[in-house]
Amino acid sequence: MVKAASGFCFVSALALFCAVSVHAKDLAAYQIGDTAGENITTPMPLDVIDAEATAARKSAEALKTPAIFRSYPDGFITNAMAAGLHAAFAANRSNFLTALNAGFSTALLDSNTIASARFAGFLADFNGKSKAFPVDANLAASWAAGDAGLDTEHHFLAALLQMTHRAIRADDLPDGFVLGDTLMLVPASSPSEPLTLAEAELHGKRITQNNMTPVTRLQMLFRRNFPEDEQGLARALSVYFKPNCTADTNLTQQARDRDVRQLVVVDHYDAGQAIVQRGATIDSKTKAALVALNEKLMPDQLNRQIAAAREQVEQQQLQLRTRNEWLAAALAVVSVIAAAAVFFARRQSRSRRQNDLLPVRVGQASAIQTELAPQLARVIKEALVQELAAQRHELLTAQQCAAAEIADLVRRLDKLQAPMHERLQIYETQIQKLEKELAARTEENRELLKMKIEMIRQQLESERARGRVDFTN
Predict the structure, then answer these.
(1) What is the reported pLDDT for 362?
(2) Beta bridge partners of 67
């Protein structure tokens, strides 16, 4: 029972020690936008990661990793472009001959008619209705004379194909996709072809950003190759340019994340250097420094609080031992009195057998023996019951206090933003320290240390379990 009482006292003390470990003015409790209530300096050298500066540095350095584009074979684009151009020429020639037959009652004109002002007016009227594919005078003369105009078609197709020997991309890039100075072209058969980062870097070819042309710029460069009278047709045909490479956002992000993963920007504080002055506003940089300092101070605070809890437990043990010693002494006194009474009664009984002339005294002795024994038993019983009741009340009170303080501890720890690995390391360090102390303790203190180790281990497992839940979420 004494050990049980000591155990509950220890539970209460440990819960109290853990609760006070979440200091009312915990440095990590400051939030961005709060006002510092005191001057805060670091008692030790401190290195703190600047999250905002690190993010900016990573963004800048990531652009040094080439953006990855899938580059497709010439036939993937040019075949479709040639087919589209040929279909457009054929459809527009058919429309032209239909209009020519309606205007001149024939689809075949002689050279004089083609050179006439009437034909020129007809051509202007036709182009006004066919702005998507205007016909220049040379092509119109060929079609009116019965020629298919293949030379003109091949001329424009060759000019288109000549421009596709460069890397061509869409004007608009995917959201968040930023080009750096260099790019990487990776041969691919289609946009859906499986491709790993290792394969891309093995087979890719680096080029500068200037060697990749957006479609709109390519159309402008294409039109520069034609005289003024062919600009309308050149503009119409330039719409057949299509990108021959596409941005691979996934592989680009993988490569850039890998290359900047180890980059950090660290703010260094010397021992004694101020982190924040009283009255200053807490910003993200200051907040990070306070969290880091709080993590550094946690082991020292924990050691001091464990020592205080140990001293409190030892005082409670001393009080219990003193009370138990008093109870033992009281029981010993009662036992001596009882033994003396029994001895006196027996002595009186022997005297009665020796002297029959004293019946009254023997009767008195017997009465004393008969009356004293139940009284002594009742005294002993009441003393034991009172002590047991007092101990039971103390146990219940200690249990209730421990439960309330542990519940409060859980709420406070939930607000503490120390990294999980730091908290687990603290528990493990304390377990090792207590196990070393275990060998040098008395039997009673050994039991308490064992109980303390077990409770800290349970807290450690609880933290680990909660850490696994947080990481999966």
Answers:
(1) 44
(2) 183
Q: What average pLDDT does range 314-321 have in this prediction? A: 66
Q: What is the DSSP track for 299-365? A: HHHHHHHHHHHHHHHHHHHHHHHHHHHHHHHHHHHHHHHHHHHHHHHHHHHHHHHH-TT-HHHHHHH
pLDDT greater than 80 at residue 376: no
CA distances (Å), origin 442, targets 157, 233, 290, 312: 99, 103, 42, 17
- HSE, side-chain direction, 13 A CA sphere, residue 315: 7
Summarize the confidence of residues 49-68 as an average pLDDT: 92
Q: What count of other Cβ atoms lies within 10 Å of the Cβ of residue 54? A: 15
Q: What is the pLDDT of residues 175-218, one digit of tens each?
A: 989 999 999 999 998 888 999 999 999 999 999 999 999 999 99
Nearest to 122 by CA among 104, 108, 110: 104
Q: How many residues does the chain have?
A: 473
Categorize the per-residue pLDDT at 1 as very low, low, confident or very high, splitting at 50, 70 and 90. very low
* pLDDT per position as a tens digit, 108-149: 999 999 999 999 999 999 988 888 888 888 889 999 999 988
Structural domain spans, the chain: 2-35+286-418, 67-259
Q: What is this structure's pTM?
A: 0.52
User: What is the per-residue pLDDT for 140?
Assistant: 92
d(CA 69, CA 157): 26
Contact 100, 109 (CB under 8 A): yes
Query: How far, in Å, are 125, 171, 338, 340 from residue 352 at the CA level?
Result: 159, 130, 21, 18
Within 416-442, residue ranges assigned H as helices are: 420-438
Q: Residues 6 or more apart from 2 whose CB is under 8 A from it?
A: 320, 321, 324
Contact 430, 302 (CB under 8 A): yes
Q: Which two tokens mark 219? A: 């159309």
Rg over CA atoms, the chain: 49
Q: Which two tokens stand for residue 332?
A: 């010993």
First to last CA, the chain: 45
CA atoms within 13 A on the CB side of 236: 20
For residue 473, the model assigns a pLDDT of 37
Q: Is 162 helix (H, G, I), strand (E, B) or coil?
A: helix
